[in-house]
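Entry 14. Two folds queued back to back today. First construct below, sequence then structure tokens.
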Amino acid sequence: MIPQDEFRALALSLPEATEGSHFETADFRVRNKIFATLRESDGRAVVKLTPDEQRLMAETMGGLLAPIPGGWGHKGWTRLDLDMASPEEALHVLTTAWRNAAPKKLHALLPAP
């Protein structure tokens, strides 16, 4: 289990990550592109994956991830179950989402997965 404040800290630990909000949901951005969100009222965390990453991670991470319903889910937006995720798993997923939103020249700031 990863508490919301720890999820927030992990997201903000990524290079140039900032926190904003929209629709009563905290969002985490890199260079103004959202890579994750956190709805504090129910602890719902959502991350930006590619559809292929979404399928692979959902299959290999034991039920921690699921596509969000509708068109956004088909585009790769994925719910992360904070009640089941370890900090290491959350950081792995957040790092992948960050790479999907960050400009390529920032990728060198994080070790390759």
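Second construct, same run, same settings:
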Amino acid sequence: MVFRNTMRAPNLNRDSTYLFFGNVAVALLGLITGLLVINNLDIISYGKWVILLDATLTLGSFVDFGMPNTIVRYWDGKSNSLTYLIETCQKIQRKILFLIMVIPCFMMVFILNNYASYLIPWIFLLFGSSMNYLLGSYRIGLRLMGEAREESLSLLLDRIFMIICLLGAIYVGPSLINLSIAYFISMNISFFYIRWRFFSQQIPHEPSSNIAEISTRSIIYDAFPFALTLLVIPMIGRIDKFILVYFEGYEAVSIFNVAWLVIMTGLLVPISVRQSAIAVFGGVKSSKININRIIYDSRGIVSTLLIMGIPSCIIISQVAFAYLFPEDMVNSKKFEYSGITLVIFLLPSWIWAMLGCVELESLKMHNSSWKFSAPLLFSLLINTLASFLLIPRYDLLGATISTGLTFFITFLISSYISESYKLYFSLFIRKLIFGILFSIILYFMGGDINIKSYEELFIMYTPLFLITYILILPDILYIFKKNIT
């Protein structure tokens, strides 16, 4: 095992770059994994796979229990302290894992007794999902040690392991059972790899930890709001699918999830920025002014990624839907909207997620960890209510509007609680106007896409895109000015 002699300090721009490019590669490989499943299952079976996977990921998220965020809040900057914190949190997570594995599995044996075809996939997916969240503590450990590049590599290998295992399952026979076993195997390989890489980065002769022994009760108490949040964040998007399957059936879930896969790929971008920001926030968590200064400094990279992401998403989706996805999942005869139209209707969700990503992440450093959970819990409530109101009337379109509204509410509340809107009011107003204008443009564009040619859409909407980009031009120039100086 090779040890380093020094520890690198986290850096927002550098680590954002590593995580961004790592997540781009992950997104591309993730698209391949999605295509492997989509093209080897019929539309109904794929809908069942989506619901089963989302349900087990939701339950498996309890294993994480907000421990990575708690590690950041307790860490004193020393390698030994980090190891102690991670090992302590892992013990708690393993106990939660046991409870999640034993109790729900026994419950599902009785609940799904008459649905044996669901039972075995459920168990393997639940085990795999739990391992997926268990490795999160080691990933945050690498990031805090300034090794975002190692974390990016682990994310990349995670997808490679998944592809190899899925190919093996498809070779044997692409059933729900075989695919779930493949998922379970790949997640276990990823866990042991990231654990090995974390301990390989340890620094010999590091000074003793200054952190006193922490009680399990205090860690659980501090982590609980983050545990709720971890459950809530993925539910923004999943709740739409659960309500869709109730009102519209598995076919609607399959069609919506194909568009959601594209947006989820895009959501890796704000996730990358948030991932790098949390390590930087950890170094200035005692100062609200410094935290808000990081929010201000992040405007350049956020704005640059926005202007690149919106047209890229539309162009890539158009090509992908034409050549990669099954016809019945991108051009549905049963529903009015599908394919590229749904992606365009979902794009405002991505825009609001980008605009508020750093503000939201900064709330993890607040004295009360509930400050981070509150906006997300409220947003989930809005998401659920809006979905129940809109989906029965507007089916797939209702689901996209509900999701966009949820991310918009999250942006507003995060800006308010972080108080960034006070300190940098002009930046907040620019973001707000930019997001609202682009959302309106995209909703009109989505409505026109079935009645106008792509050439007409390009001529009509490109000038509107460029005019709206002017709003965030000062923020884009800021990142270049800062790099020069």
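Quick look at the second one. The chain has 20 helices and no strands. The longest helix spans residues 370-418.
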